[in-house]
Amino acid sequence: MKIPARLLVFSIALIARADTFTDLAAQATAARETNNIPRAIALYQKALEIKPAWAEGWWFLGTLCYDSDQYQIGGHAFSEFVKLDEKVAMGWGFLGLCEFETGEREHALEHIRRGLEIGTGIEPAIEQVLRFHEVLLLTRLGLFDQAMPRFMPFVRRGVKNQTLVAGIGLTALRLALLPNEVPDGQQALIAAAGQTAYLWMVGDDSKTEPAFKALLDHYPKAPGVRYFYATYLLSFRPAEEAVVELKHELEVNPRSADARATIALLMVRAGASSAAFPLARQAVQDGPQSPIAQYTYGLILAGTPDLRQAIEHLEAAERLDPASIEYHMGLASAYSNAGRHEDARRERRRSIALARESDSSGPK
Amino acid sequence: MVRSSLGKAAATCLVLLPAAFAAGENPCATCHREEARSQPHTAMGIGIQLPADQTVLKEHPRLTFESNGYNYAIERKDGLSMYTVSDGVGSLALPIRYAFGVSAQTFVFEYKDHFYESLVSYYPSANGLAITMGSERLLPHNLVEAMGRETSGEEMVSCFGCHSSGGVSQGTLTLESMKPGLDCEHCHPGANTHLEAVSQGKPPAAPSKLGVMSAEDTSKFCGACHRTWDAVVRMRTWGELNVRFQPYRLANSKCFLGNDRRISCTACHNPHADLVRDEASYDRNCLACHAGTSSAGTALQKSCPVSDRKCVSCHMPKVELPGSHSVFTDHQIRIIRAGDRYPN
Which residue among A165, B224, B245, B272 is the one 20 to 30 A from B16 at the CA level? Predict the structure, then answer.
């Protein structure tokens, strides 16, 4: 709900006479409780000018603004609130939700996660909202490998709506968009990919394979489709079959760093690091923002005397996707070989922490 | 000409190799005598015991056990060990195809074209049978379930991949060419090509030298079977259950320096010989770093204020692996204080 500027001015005029903090706070509370949102917002702002350390004031100002779609002001209110009380999970959560709406995506993800990490005091329904925004942000930031498993709890609980399916579809096709940013011409593709991934996640084997076939038939040249199918094949078929699909992906999407890096990584795992080297190098050139490309190239270099460069690429992968256990482990090993023992221990501690976290966290 | 290009050692090989082949001996022993002679008798060299060579079962011709209302018996007869499970009404008997391990043994048999891992294993500490580690919580509903746990193909690839040579090729089981235990080629890829070249008088490409690997890389190499640090984290095996994964435990040690070979697996263990159980024999490895002073007279790592003998008895405690009826040496080297919990 947007509040017209004229109404806001009028509300401020009404409260001009109230000059003590106590009066303003009482009036703000009354306005909030009678659902007079514009007046309440104006009163809270006025009161907070007098007493900026009033945490409760920032909280109510933030929630009123969030509820009335005034995300810029709401975000500011919550950022002031968490400065005063950094232990309130909901403060960080709402700050992230406001930032999500204003397009400050990295900050939004960081703050939503901080709220979820604190955890206490978050109502289950709000937690689901936070987790849903978290996963949409991961996709929007290109962290597809982190995003996909985070859809699973929603699927397990039987949640199914257009936005969720679109979010899954975007992640499956590795398109860094939010569901509401999908161009008209791509909506059917995204929905079909999302529906296919949904069936796979549900474990409906009898429908998943036909859904993939239909997707491949309808969209044989759409970037991301072959890559998606390759990831499916990798879960139960020999790697060679996935490599065939990844090569098809490169035919339609020649600069897909993820596809090229995945081929290289599969070669490394098969013991063919030397042959994988040029592919991984090309992947990094095409997609310096691709964590898997940086990781694979770093991993190959870690098997050569050029540990310095290996570490640079593994650090890049870790920076791009700090939640990946594999990247921390790759980096730990490279540090260890380079004699950077404290760094290696730190990365190993992080790997264990992430592994333990993934054992116990996530929506149930 | 060949001799001059190959050098004296290779020339000797060239002369002696045909005789080794003819005698059916391991041709690698022609040059690598000590290693080739001792390694086949080690736990890694044996790996699996086939029916004719199942020494543990030969020494214990009748083993029995009872669990969850089922009676188990392993009896040796006519060169075969039969594994029988009965519930008082009926029974199921199968020959043991493979006995995995050398000391403690778990048995594998085939039933209706599938491999099963025996629900009971032989444990020396029990001097008999007990429930197989990992199957403690299984409650069998029928004779087949009581007999054992059906294994996945992937699991068998992993078992034969580490307990045999030639049992796995490109990720699939190739049991027709399987030889129990690890042969030279298993750890030294290229050994066969090297041998072939030598026997033909061609310049041999030597397999890569494992001894030059860093401690970190050695841990990864040995960890291919003993589990790498990464593999343990991926499996999320926490607590005492990971004590048997030595590369993981070792890398968690404060003194583990990945680029220092003095702390590598092979600094303490000779993979071509049996495990040495004399604790004092490892002192020289500890003292290689904790000797007090270097030749230049400067301090190396801290030396132990208590003793310079049997370091591992304090700093590498023995930990019972839950469910295994076995005790393992914890390779997370550390100073242990009273009340310390198992670190992870």
Answer: B272
Q: What whole-number distance in Å separates Cα of residue A100 and Cα of residue A92?
A: 12
Tell me, yes or no, whether B165 lies in a domain: no
Q: Classify residue A58 as left (phi > 0), alpha (psi -120 to 50) or beta.
A: alpha
CA distance B321 to B303: 30
Q: Is residue B99 part of a domain?
A: yes
Q: What total number of domains does chain B contain? A: 3
Last residue of a domain, one of A252, A275, A303: A252
Q: Which two tokens stand for residue B180?
A: 């129990």
Do B70 and B110 fall within a single domain? Answer: yes
Instruction: Please check whether residues A213 and A277 belong to one and the same domain.
Output: no
What pLDDT, on a 0 to 100 scale, did the predictor assign at position B204?
Answer: 74
Domain assignment of residue A75, given as a range: 1-122
Domain range enclosing B299: 212-329
The reply to whether B296 falls in a domain is yes
Rounded-to-integer distance, Cα A265 and Cα A293, Å:
9
Backbone angles phi, psi at A167, to 5 degrees: -60, -45
**A97 and A13, same structural domain?**
yes
Q: How sure is the predictor about B30, in pLDDT bands with cuts at 50, 70 and 90? A: confident
Test B233 with A335 for CB contact under 8 angstroms.
no
DSSP A217-269: HH-TTSTTHHHHHHHHHHTTS-HHHHHHHHHHHHHHSTT-HHHHHHHHHHHHH
CB atoms within 10 A of CB B8: 9
Testing the interface with B: which of A304, A311, A333 to mutate, by most B Cβ within 10 A? A333
* Residues 6 or more apart in contact with residue A328 via CB below 8 angstroms: A318, A347, A348, A350, A351, A354
State the ipTM, two decimals: 0.88
Residues of B in contact with A356 (CB under 8 A): 236, 238
Q: How many CB atoms lie within 10 A of CB B237?
A: 17
State the pLDDT at residue B3: 42
The pLDDT score that the predictor gives to residue B1 is 40
Give the chain B residue whose CA is nearest to the CA of A324: B234
Q: Are strands B120-123 and B98-100 parallel, antiparallel or unpaired?
A: unpaired
Q: Which residues of B are less than 8 Å from A329 in CB distance?
A: 229-230, 233
Measured CA distances, A319 to A288, A323, A324, A351, B330 (Å): 12, 9, 10, 14, 34
In DSSP notation, B289-304 reads TSSSB-TTS-B-SPPP
In terms of DSSP bridges, do strands B326-329 and B172-173 run parallel, antiparallel, or are they unpaired?
unpaired
Query: Per-residue confidence at A46, pLDDT binned at 50, 70, 90?
Result: very high
Summarize pLDDT for B311-330 with one digit per residue, the tens: 999 999 999 999 999 999 99
Using DSSP's 3-state secondary structure scheme, residue B327 falls into strand
- CB of B226 within 8 Å of a chain A CB? The answer is no
Residues sharing a CB contact under 8 Å with residue A231, sequence separation 6 or more, in sequence order: A242
